[in-house]
Protein: Myosin motor domain-containing protein
Organism: Hemibagrus wyckioides
Amino acid sequence: MAKVKQKLLFRTENVSGGRTEGESGSFEQGGSAKRPGKVNRVTERLQARRKSLNDSLEGDVRAFLVNEAELHTYDDLTKVNPVTPTTVLKCLQARYSARVFYTHAGCTLVAMNPFQPIPHLYSLDVMREYHTASQPQDFKPHIFIVAEEAYRNVQGQVEPVNQSLVVSGESGAGKTWTSRCLMKYYATVAASSQKCQHTVERIERRVLDSNPIMEAFGNACTLRNNNSSRFGKYIQLQLNSSQLLVGASVQTYLLEKTRVAFQAPNERNFHIFYQMMKGATEEQRQEWEMPCDQKFTWLPNAEKSLEEDCFQETVEAMVNLGIDAHKRAQIFRILAGLLQLGNVNFSPAPESEPCGLDQQSKGFLGKTAALLRVPADELRECVSIRTLRAGKQSALLKPCSQSECVVRRDCLAKVIYARLFDWLVGFINSSMCADDSKWCNFIGLLDVYGFECFLLNNLEQLCINYANEKLQQHFVAHYLKAQQEEYVSEGLQWSFVRYQDNQRCLDLIEGNPTSIFSLLNEECRLNRASDAKQFRERLQKELSDNGSMSWDKFSKQPHFIVAHYAGKVSYQIEGMMEKNKDPVPPELLSLLQKSEDPLLQSLFADTETEGKPHGHSKVVTVVSKFKNSLENLMKILHSTTPHYTRCIKPNPDCKPLTFQKEEVITQLEACGIVETIHISAAGFPIRVPYDNFIQRYRLISNTRLLAQGAENEAQIALGPAVQDILNAVLRTKSSAPNNNNNVMVHCGKTKVFLTHAMLELLEEQRYRVLSQKAFSIQCCWRRHQRRQRAIRTKCATFIQAVVRGWLVRREVRRWRKAATVIQNKWRSWRALMDSLAEAELDNAEDLQEEEEARSFLFQRGSVPLSSFPNPQAVSSLPLGLAMSFTPSVTVTLTTTGFHKIMSIMATLKIPFRNGEYKVETNQFKHGVASIRAQPQGSVKLHMQRSPLRYADMYPGSHTDQVTGFNQILLENS
Ligand SMILES: Nc1ncnc2c1ncn2[C@@H]1O[C@H](COP(=O)(O)OP(=O)(O)OP(=O)(O)O)[C@@H](O)[C@H]1O
């Protein structure tokens, strides 16, 4: 802790004198002016002390830098010791040389621009790795850590739940690149699960497709960056309650529309014009009056070829976003019209006459009119003649001077382009913005133009730098000022860090009642010809008290200099008031409203064209509009959890992997990185109110919440509970060596102040306890499930056994019943038959003797063999038959019962040929050995019916036994 304090003291002394201090910066020096008599001695003592501190610090710096090989291993600059601009710079340089481009600087991420694509640094696999890691902070610093942290904050519903990712840095530092990476990250990780893939995929695609369109229409090649964003944007990624990306919206700020009609030397117009020029098909060229060899004044440096000149990609993105072919044709036709308009030149004319046009310009004007679908003569008139109205009197026409014509021409182009850009943004929003009911949280990405300082700076630069000042103030307020103020109010012992407070600069630009903006607005509302010199004097008179304003005594141009947080910038006053008014001649507006192009017409449909005399309150100037939109943005930022990423441009020439120390140190100082590291290293960046702390971490020590009473009582009640939790965590930590727990946590009056390390410990412990509890729950649940399953199985087996038993018993019962019935029937039938047979056999002799019975029972007769029935007929005889033999017929029988006899008879075949007969059989196995018959005369078949009706009704048990006496007798006739 002593060392940290020492470092802080050093910084207190080293902040450059030209900058304002943070309010609390005087805390350290509070007693210095107590007794004037002793001032000298005190000052001497102080100086001596400072000198010795500086000497020892230089020694520390040297000692730190000796270990050069290790410098690149510092992932977090808060671990650098001592923290000085030199040590920080050396670490960043070492890391850059080792191709490591991201470094933590406490609460901020420093992103160095490699100016060349780094393979696999942003691949899908890397995204997934960071997303699925349990502790992404343990991974190498990366923009994905910031993205993941914000995403997890939303998931964990940590207040404030909505997040803002602020990407800042100067032009070309890599802000747009970083924003693109963040959008890709969220489009990947916040993608839907399989089941609703279709609906959400559409949004992810659209969010990503909005980039090429916005960049084509809003980016341009400047001296500092080939793909410089010429507008600011805040993208809100809308997440539903499951943290899936369900929509997005874009808010844009201050498009640099002057670029359409004016491009600084060696700069270019917006990319889209070059894309059209280079990527149009022959057919499109004809339609747009854009032959290959055509030169356009507003397309300078067209020969420079950039990877951004990719028309096809823009068109594809437009298609994906739902801009149909018809609309695209309208858009490109309007843009082509603007290019033609840029080639129109006016020649001077006498005061009472409108400016002339040479032959070429007439042609260009005609083409412009045709492409914009407005009458050519009206267009010419609008651009070169002004309509003056005084009240309700009839209009007076006044020809414009040559320069006025140029201004009106440029104004026409600017207003059309700006409205077209806004229309595109509106279209993009409508195609990807989710219904309010569908999303509940958002992650905002802010990509604003970087700080700008050119040789000539005007209103655009003033607005851009003002926006950067606002963001810097938000950063300072959030990370430096508010923290230190809170430390005081919570009663922490704290050595204060000086920081650069830019409030004075902001007061100068936007303050009330007098500031640059207020004076500019006043000038515009006076509705008089603006005079730069007069305005400069006014500024000097009103604002010279403000230390952030100065003038260059040797400059002849009316100007003023503002000392911004990132450096001094000189602004020229000439043209500033006109730009602030941004007037559009009403004739031009009404001309555009009459256009036959439906898109162009709709762009101006709801614009007031009648030149009303401007009352004081009516004029809405550029700066007041910009200030309002910026204030709204700041409100959003203040209501969200911010995450800052500072992009650093390592060299001004955009050379790959080139590190220029001076360039980097200026940027580090400008954005207050060193101060941020100090506060992050020494302070407690995480501050959690007691009850939130207990709610989240009470499970670590099984703390029970007491009933809450008044705030103070609650605090008193919560204090020991918080202490219990911290003790529980620190006890587990104290087993590890080198712990210095006392500097990791501090209990304030209402909040617990934590370092990131302590938060990690708490979260780790919470995670461990949660895992244990989850494990116990799982065990119980599994045991319960196992038991339930066993019970179910047992029950099912029992039921199955019972049912099967019952079924079998039922079946057996049926069988038994049936068997009994059959047995009974069979037995009674057998008994009946036996009795009948017995009775019959007993009476057989008597029957033979009885004459009447004989005539009844014996039937004799002869049947001609030719009419011998077929085997089926034989088999239908009621009783078994025995074959007798005659001299001419041999029949051998081995009878085996009734059925055998029947089958023998059935197999007999007696073919009849020419009155002869032959008896044959092939059924040896049925006992018929042979049947032979001589074909002599006719054979008579004598049938004798047995007198016994029952005695041979069933086959005997012996094979040779034939019971009964039915016979067939064959004999010669
Ligand atoms: N991480 C990176 N990896 C590779 N190249 C990068 C990276 N970041 C930036 N660049 C390169 O640097 C160039 C400038 O970056 P970018 O356009 O994002 O800057 P910017 O800060 O948005 O500038 P401006 O404020 O002018 O819009 C890019 O065109 C790209 O080529």
About this structure: The mean pLDDT is 79. Residues 113-118, 169, 171-177, 225-229, 449-450, 647 surround adenosine-5'-triphosphate (CB under 6 Å). The longest strand covers residues 245-253.
